[in-house]
Amino acid sequence: MIELSGVGKIFPGGEGGFIALDHIDLSLPAGEFVAIVGKSGSGKSTLINLIAGIDRPSSGGIRVSGTMVNELDESRLAAWRGRNVGVVFQSFQLLPTLTILENVMLPMDFCQTLPPQQARERALRLLAQVGVADQADKLPSGLSGGQQQRAAIARALANDPPLIVADEPTGNLDSHTAQAVLQLLANLAQAGKTVLMVTHERDMTQFADRIVTLADGKVVAQTATAGHARRLPREVAYA
Amino acid sequence: MKLTPGTHLLSPRWIKLIRDLQAEKERMLFMLLAITVSLIAVGAVLGGYAVLTREIAANYLGTRPFHATLELPGGGGADVLTLARQHPAIQDAEARDVVLARADVDGNWRSLLLFVIDDFAAMRGNTFTPLTGAWPPATGSMLIERTAISMLNADVGGRVRVKTAHGTVREVPVTGLVHDPGLAPAWQERSGYGYITRDTLAALGEAPLLHELRISLRDPAASSQAIETVAADLARQLAERGQTVHEIRVPPPRQHPHQRQMTTILFMMFAFSLMALVLSGILVATSLNAMLARQVREIGVMKAIGARTAQIARMYALLVAAIGVAAVAVAIPVGLAGSQVLARAVANLLNFSIADASVPIWVFGVQVLAGILVPLLIAALPIRRASRMSVNVAITQHGVGSDSLRLRTAKLPWPMRNALRRPARLVLTVGLLAAGGAMFMTALNVSNSWERNIAKVYETRHYDVEVRFHEAQATAVAQRILAVPGVTAVEAWGYSPTAFAKQGQVDVVRTYPDRGHASFALLAPPAGTRLVDFPVLAGRWLKPDDTDAVVLNHAAAAQAPQLRVGDRVDLSIDGKATSWRIAGIVEEIGSAGVAYVTDQAFARIAGLPGQARMLRVATQAGASDARTAIIRAIEQRLAGDGVGVENAMPLAELRTAMADHIVILIRSLVALAAVMAAVGALGLSSAMSVSVLERTREFGVMKTIGATPARIIRLVVAESFFIGALSWIAALIVSVPLTWLVDTLVGNLGFVAPLPFVIAPGPPLMWLVLVAVVALIATLVPARRASQMSVAGALVQL
Fold it and tell me: Which of B1, B365, B466, B702 could form a disulfide with B707 if both were Cys (CB 3.0 to 4.6 A apart)?
């Protein structure tokens, strides 16, 4: 369960700063695939950054699965983020000097969730589940965009976090690959993860259970959809 | 370690670090090189210092230097020795003598100090060790000090023609070689050192008397004051028994005559080495800062997937520590070798033998700590800043920005604006280069100051040759010498050894047994002398009608620092205290302590009217050969007149002696300046290559809108020149007070007076050229690479 109460975010600059989010009150149930949509500059990326603990609100409170995220200090926040949030970026952000396998192992290394051998086995399993196990020993530069994003999703799953946030995960992909990535994210929600996805393309919301629409830093609409109909059967589990 | 994809020996974060190292190997090499070079300097200097300080004990103190020497005009017999040895504070005593003779070296007379030993097998102090040949020397022969071979142009088996004050010229065979660590090298003092028995002294025509009673105290660590007290007490007891003590000599206890020079050299070298290390640390911080700037996004990603600030900081701190460890691994053996070279060079300056060249373990400990801790401490700030950056800020950062550019720079040329985009890095780079440049210029300035100092020897003295007589001669001798072809001016001067006298007490001087170091003399130039022209530091120079005025040179003034112009001072002449009023203090480079009085006043006080002990002669000789010929002619004229010459020294010898005393310091300074320059150049290279790499994408954009590769190269090179110019100005400004400081320090520590402050155009110009060349080389390669990259390739960077 994600709860935001009176969340505001003001970025410095200009007179009084730039208001990215304006007193947002929002409740999102666990286990849903939530698409956050809106025009450029509407505050959608800022919103998921705050929920993921990547940024801090200027005002208000954010509770994720019972934890007041905005009250954690930097060190606790990093530890919480490592174990509770999987982040998928638009430009993949795989570390260029690590292989795909090593990239997936990295969160387990930082959070010390598994010893190296078990971490390696789990990383291989996750890569197999997203369909790029055969690329495990390649550097990111040797993979296509779609393969890199799949690997990034595997990395986001490394510590088995209950929450996955994805900021424009299909923004750098062709439509066919984008569909496949969306399917992957939908399946995660099907498997019980909460997935928050930012997108500015309406047609990318087809898999979502809920669509939150932002405009000028405010939630202007929140609608439940039938997107879940496209998901794979629930028994496809992500370890 | 080469980590290829698929290697899983380590956890991913360390694999990342190692691959980052591989990817940035050029910059890492810069850092490694800078720290290694500095650490080598630190190791060499500290190691050399450790070896030398230990070897001082083994060499100089190993000679068991006597604490004091009492000059007995009547010679010391067995009764004197017995009395001395019975004194409760005295450990031992021995009678010795030092005779100033002359040696014929290829037709030229050179001064020769003959050390007369009563019993070579039973020396109680001021010992020396036989190296080759006979021991003890047979009557009629002599041993020579190992450093005197070149001065006498004679070795074991050779013969030296020797003339003493009262004897005729005798051929003395050299039968052995000794090492006397208590003496400065003969080649520095421009004198020969011989060791003879009392019988040989008699054979050379001198009375076989030993005029020196040398004593050592029971307390080996006795202060100068305590030594003086004991020596004065012994002098009183001797006087009660009718034995006159003319003078007491108490050289600085436990201190080699050249120890101050050694301390100065090592201090300067250590200070410069430390600065080089700090500069290297700054270079590490600059390079690391640049590397972190390139990795900001990766840091953001790592934090986003769970890395904590401490984990990130630890990764990069370990990287810096690893560079430090690698530098230490190289620097320790090379520094060790450097310490051996340095120790031997300085030992040569001090006439030491290095018996044990091993470097103590603490030196390596310091190297390890300095090599790892200094870069870590300096890199702590950029590491802290990068690792604490918020995820959001880190992830959204794109290459080089201009957010931090708050200066009003819009009107500046574009290359300058580019350089100002990263003010913190600019400050570090300029600071690094400026520090290197400032030290480079300072070292060369000090070197020039020293040259200027030596030049003063000639500028303030307008004579070529100084001739001292054994006995006072009629001043008319000057007219006869003026008639020697090539002689242009002659002045007859009064001369007497002197001391600051205390009423009712025996004179105490600081002179070493070689009679040269820390000596003090009274000189009496004729009224209106034209042969010296010393700069007046306080008061005035002598006037012809002065009757009780004395002018001290700065070395003499330093022996009695409480004295001021206008004070009265008692100076001893032949054991009699004479009272003078200090009229002035002059700077006299290259001389021991001298008090100047008018010849009239001196003649009256010394009871030697119309007589002189010394001639100062100006010649028209332009080269040393011509001068040597004139000196020979002077010697012949004096010999023909039956005048006994104690010494005839060309002024060039004084200059050579001075240069030889300090040459190693100047060479060391210049070598360290080169290290500084190298570190500074590495800093600029590193910063510029980073700056270019960071902006590869920007260059791609520029190319899409029409910029040619040549235009991009010009832009980057201009930026590099701008940074170089900024650093040059800063270096020039810093070098001025730094030069003054080092001039003062070196001059005061080594030579009692500050070196002349010289800021010549050469060093700044040299540094300017060097900076320009480095800026060009550092920038050209990466700028060329960036300019030739395809637009598409450039745009995907960063």
Answer: B702
Tell me which residue in B11, B305, B390 faces A155 most closely, judged by beta carbons.
B305
Q: Which two tokens stand for residue A123?
A: 């990383």
Q: Are residues B273 and B170 in the same domain?
A: no
CA-nearest residue to B303 within chain A is A78
* B774 inside domain: yes
Q: What is the mean pLDDT of residues B469-489?
A: 89
- Region class of B694: left (phi > 0), else alpha (psi between -120 and 50), else beta: alpha
Tell me if B759 sits within 8 A of B255, measured CB to CB.
no
pLDDT band at B407 (very low <50, low <70, confident <90, very high): very low
B318 with B261, same domain: the answer is yes
Chain A, nearest residue to B19 by Cα: A97
Structural domain boundaries, residue B271: 1-60+256-397
Here the CATH number for the domain that contains residue A176 is 3.40.50.300
Chain B residue at shortest CA distance from A102: B12
**What's the pLDDT tens digit per position in B26-76?**
778 877 887 888 888 889 888 988 898 888 777 888 888 999 999 888 887
B266 and B180, same domain (yes or no): no
- The three-state secondary structure class of B244 is coil
User: B475 with B561, same domain?
Assistant: yes
CA distance to A110, A178, B28, B384, per residue, from B779 (Å): 38, 43, 17, 29
Q: Provide, as residue numbers in chain B, all residues whose Cβ is less than 8 Å from the Cβ of A106.
A: 12-13, 16, 302, 305
- Tell me how close the Cα of B310 comes to any Cα of chain A, in angstroms: 8
- Structure confidence by residue, pLDDT tens digits, B575-609: 778 889 999 999 988 788 899 999 888 888 878 78
Total domains in the fold of chain B: 4
Same domain, B489 and B571: yes
Write out the residues of chain A at the interface with chain B, using a CB-CB cutoff of 8 A: 49, 52, 54-56, 74-75, 78-79, 81-83, 86-87, 89, 93, 95-99, 102-103, 105-107, 109-111, 116, 120, 137-139, 155-156, 158-159
My answer on whether B616 and B675 are in the same domain is: no
Cβ contact (<8 Å) for B6 and A137? yes
* Chain Cα centroid distance, residue A233: 21
Identify the closest residue of chain A to B7 by CA–CA distance.
A137
Residue at a domain's end among B566, B595, B620: B620
Q: Which amino acid is at A30?
A: A
